């Protein structure tokens, strides 16, 4: 029965090709492929495993923040603190390691705890005090910046006493363990979004908050969870930085929130909330970094890069609007 | 608007004054100044104040623009880069193409208006989220201003016969020229918003978009106009800074957008739209600067400057929500 219905729905909804192209993940993958082919044809050295692995490994920092951002945007909010929250969490972890003599696991827990705590503060302001999310998280961004600079005193804080450098320098399959942890996190996120009750509620809240409320979903609790998750992922991004550099600095995550938002936007997550996939967001991160590295290897002026990034951001948001319109027309038209 | 009418009806004179939004921004300003002055009397010195007022006008003019977009229920975070754009385009035209003051300023401001129009068009026509849209233009304008220049800085003092820049070297009634420009712009904005039909329409658009449309206000047009004004005022601020310094630097204006928004929020501009007062914005921006300055004077670590800005902003939004909830009669 279910298969029948699916088949009928499929036969109704346009040709196979257009459905394939409208798939958000494919929509991200195509530009990555085109970009790679074009760049390779100009600069053959782009198409080497060495270069590609450096793209992959370089994308985990913004990638982790983008995962948190994806949760926030899917629920119809925005989190501008993912960059500096991560930085502050990393600084706090390093502080715990240096001043309290913590081992590896407690140090990481301090970092994650800090991130979650700041996320909870964001969530509290948004749900209980009813502040708008962007001004709240902008304020926490400022607060985290100030705290991170104050705690670290503006100097890098070395965590070499933890002895993690062997772990971070290892190169399984030419990549790093942190990269595989990141991939694991994407898979977990996807399962949370698509298979769990929380994920269903999250999408419902993002899609239409009032309907979600009416159907008995505790919107406030969902949003609180979202901000805590977002804070956790911000901390993960910050801890990646700290582990790779074996030190924490208050300058690591500056501007990361914007890059995370751009990655999520070009990854096909609807800026209006409610729709999108975590794999799409992951591919969005990859596209952003491929573009970045391609522009760099093609020696394109850094300022032109900024123009292009802004242009692509606007284009992807526009594309999202058009995709929605096409889908809506097809649903109505049958 | 309606709640304001409710408040002003049942009070007279002093009571009426104490219940205005501007007054509630003024109290923390006065308190901070009094406490700091009590601990460090030199805080109130003329030198310290003139140092603060060297920076306030530029952010205040940008904030006035930001308050226009916030008033209509949107946000514009590209203002800082637009200020930098206009601030480098004007001297570029003068130095490289030998243009005069008037036409170079006019063309730069026209470009700002165009950027504002694009922002407004994308937000209104396609329904894009305003934050993301202006973030896109932030990147594009931020890169474009470097692309159009050949040199890193353009010195206006070196240009023969460019007399405008010398006018900015002198003080008028003890204040630099850009300070008076700021006052004039705020006075114009005050009249426009508080005394004209156009201002009422702007506020109504932000207050309740649907109701505004129902009573015949072209709310889309008002939103686009707000974006254009926001970019225009940012451009004016950037050009004034360039004229004051005597040379243009492309990175001027970076980070102004959030300080401007912080000033607006502290100055009682409601983030949900429909409420803004130029006087409040001016007091709000001053408060942000005074608070930062007070931190340094009180011996707190200067690294906490940014954190205080954030705390101030969060506090102001909270206070705004508290005030709204108290005013609306049950």
Keywords:
heterodimer, A: 334 residues, mainly alpha, two-stranded antiparallel ribbon, 16 helices, B: 330 residues, ABC transporter involved in vitamin B12 uptake, BtuC, 73% helix, 2% strand, globular, disordered N terminus
- Proportion of strand residues of chain A: under 5%
Biggest sheet strand line-up of chain A: 1-2
- Average pLDDT metric of chain B: 84
Say what the CATH topology of chain B is: ABC transporter involved in vitamin B12 uptake, BtuC
Can you name the CATH architecture of chain B?
A: Orthogonal Bundle
CATH structural class of chain B: Mainly Alpha
How would a textbook summarize the main sheet of chain A? 2 strands, antiparallel
Q: What proportion strand of chain B?
A: under 5%
* Unreliable residue runs of chain A: none
Q: How do the strands line up in the largest sheet of chain B?
A: 1-4
Secondary structural class of chain B = mainly alpha
Computed CA radius of gyration of chain B, to the nearest angstrom? 20 Å
Report helical residue fraction of chain B: over 70%
List how many beta strands of chain B DSSP finds. Answer: 4
**Share in helix of chain A:** over 70%
> Could you state the order of secondary-structure elements of chain A as H and E?
HHHHHHHHEHHHHHEHHH
């Amino acid at each position: 029965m279910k298969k029948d219905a699916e088949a009928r729905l499929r036969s109704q909804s346009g040709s196979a090709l257009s459905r394939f192209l409208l798939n958000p993940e494919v929509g991200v993958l195509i530009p990555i492929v085109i970009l790679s082919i074009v760049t390779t044809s100009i600069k053959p050295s782009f198409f080497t495993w060495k270069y590609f692995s450096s793209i992959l490994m370089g994308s985990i920092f913004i990638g982790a923040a983008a995962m948190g951002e994806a949760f926030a945007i899917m629920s119809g909010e925005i989190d501008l603190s993912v960059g500096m929250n991560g930085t502050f969490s990393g600084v706090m972890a390093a502080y715990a390691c240096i001043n309290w003599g913590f081992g590896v696991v407690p140090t990481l827990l301090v970092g994650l705890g800090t991130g979650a705590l700041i996320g909870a503060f964001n969530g509290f302001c948004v749900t209980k005090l009813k502040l708008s999310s962007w001004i709240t998280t902008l304020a926490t961004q400022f607060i985290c910046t100030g705290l991170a600079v104050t705690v670290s005193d503006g100097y890098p804080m070395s965590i070499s006493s933890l002895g993690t450098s062997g772990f971070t320098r290892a190169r399984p399959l030419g990549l790093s363990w942190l990269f595989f942890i990141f991939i694991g996190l994407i898979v977990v996120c996807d399962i949370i979004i698509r298979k769990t009750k929380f994920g269903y509620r999250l999408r419902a809240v993002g899609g239409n908050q009032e309907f979600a409320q009416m159907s008995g979903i505790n919107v406030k609790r969902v949003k609180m969870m979202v901000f805590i998750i977002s804070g956790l992922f911000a901390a993960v991004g910050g801890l990646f930085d700290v582990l790779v550099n074996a030190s924490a600095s208050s300058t690591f995550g500056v501007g990361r929130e914007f890059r995370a938002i751009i990655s999520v936007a070009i990854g096909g997550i609807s800026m209006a909330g409610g729709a999108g996939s975590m794999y799409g967001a992951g591919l969005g991160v990859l596209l952003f970094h491929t573009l970045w590295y391609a522009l760099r290897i093609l020696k394109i002026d850094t300022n032109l890069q900024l123009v292009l990034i802004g242009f692509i951001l606007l284009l992807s948001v526009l594309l999202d609007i058009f995709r929605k319109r096409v889908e809506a027309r097809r649903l109505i038209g049958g | 608007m309606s709640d304001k009418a409710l408040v002003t009806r049942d009070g007279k004179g002093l009571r009426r004054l104490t219940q205005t939004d501007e007054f509630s921004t003024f109290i923390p300003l006065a308190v901070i100044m009094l406490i700091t002055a009590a601990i460090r009397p030199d805080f109130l010195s003329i030198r310290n104040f003139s140092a603060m007022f060297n920076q306030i006008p530029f952010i205040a003019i940008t904030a006035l623009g930001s308050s226009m977009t916030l008033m209509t229920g949107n946000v514009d975070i590209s203002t800082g880069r637009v200020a930098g754009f206009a601030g480098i385009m004007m001297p570029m035209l003068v130095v490289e193409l030998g243009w005069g003051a008037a036409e170079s300023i006019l063309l730069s401001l026209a470009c700002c208006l165009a950027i504002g129009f694009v922002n407004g068009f994308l937000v209104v026509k396609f329904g894009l989220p305003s934050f993301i849209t202006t973030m896109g233009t932030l990147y594009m304008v931020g890169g474009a201003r470097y692309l159009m220049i050949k040199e890193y800085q353009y010195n206006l003092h070196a240009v023969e016969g460019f007399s405008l820049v010398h006018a900015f070297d002198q003080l008028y009634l003890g204040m630099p020229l850009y300070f008076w420009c700021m006052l004039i712009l705020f006075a114009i904005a005050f009249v426009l918003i508080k005394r004209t039909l156009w201002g009422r329409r702007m506020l109504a658009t932000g207050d309740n978009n649907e109701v505004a449309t129902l009573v015949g206000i072209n709310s889309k047009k008002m939103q686009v106009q707000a974006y254009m004004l926001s970019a225009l005022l940012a451009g004016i601020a950037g050009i004034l800074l360039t004229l004051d310094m005597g040379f243009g630097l492309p990175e001027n204006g970076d980070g102004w957008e959030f300080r401007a928004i912080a000033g607006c929020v502290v100055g009682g501009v409601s983030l949900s739209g429909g409420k803004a007062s130029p006087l409040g914005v001016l007091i709000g921006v001053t408060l942000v600067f005074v608070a930062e300055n007070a931190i340094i004077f009180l011996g707190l670590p200067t690294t906490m400057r940014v954190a205080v800005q954030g705390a101030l902003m969060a506090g102001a939004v909270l206070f705004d929500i508290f005030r709204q909830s108290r005013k609306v009669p049950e």
